[in-house]
């Protein structure tokens, strides 16, 4: 039997270094010196037999560290939930990963609820819904929005509903890319994406090419911010898919119009979280499910 198991303080140091973005900040959060944090990380690495943290700026976990981080986060969170109220920290960190479209529209209801909780520090990272579950697998977060329906080992996946996206283009861009019949020529019209993981536009384009027996390889621009993405669409940088709730909430859509002949795209959304019962995570999961029930299209 292995006797040199990692200690709780070592696991907590690993989580703090990742969450706080550095050894100094981790020491401040844990109430210890930077040197103590470094010693705990080195001891943990010695115990595990691998380098777990790359000493970059900010520090990042190695591939070996990802597996340890996932378990460390669960252990630290679970022990924290068992700590008597008098000894527990005033606020528990709740790291989650969500898509920018969800964060800017329907998920605001859950965020507003969390704002009223005096025992939570919410830490939200933005991840595309096609890869959100990967943040959970890496141990970066406790919960994540994802289009993947299947839960990973040790996690649960709750169906939330469908997010509907509308393909739109500015009128001035469309006017520059008309085919002989006067329709938008998607083989030449530039595309605008939100990031490398954003496959919505190309998913629509591939379906259109199959239907019309065409090939397309248009220029693809990228703006990795929600406001910037809408600005790029309005400016005519490219055509793209925008969430129907966001489109409806815009005070002025300018000259954006729906692209004729392209169907709206529904993306299934699921809430992935650890199966371990943690009061803070349970509470936020309930808020997410309630917000989704009010705003998303049902399956």
UniProtKB/TrEMBL annotation:
Q: What are the protein's GO molecular function terms? A: DNA binding; DNA-binding transcription factor activity
Q: Which Pfam families match?
A: HTH_1, LysR_substrate
Q: Which domain of life is it from?
A: Bacteria
Keywords associated with the record? DNA-binding, Transcription, Transcription regulation
Give every HTH lysR-type domain span: 6-62
InterPro entries, alphabetically?
LTTR, LysR_HTH_N, LysR_subst-bd, WH-like_DNA-bd_sf, WH_DNA-bd_sf
Tell me the protein family, please. Belongs to the LysR transcriptional regulatory family.
This protein's name: Putative transcriptional regulator, LysR family
Species in which this protein is naturally found = Brevibacterium yomogidense
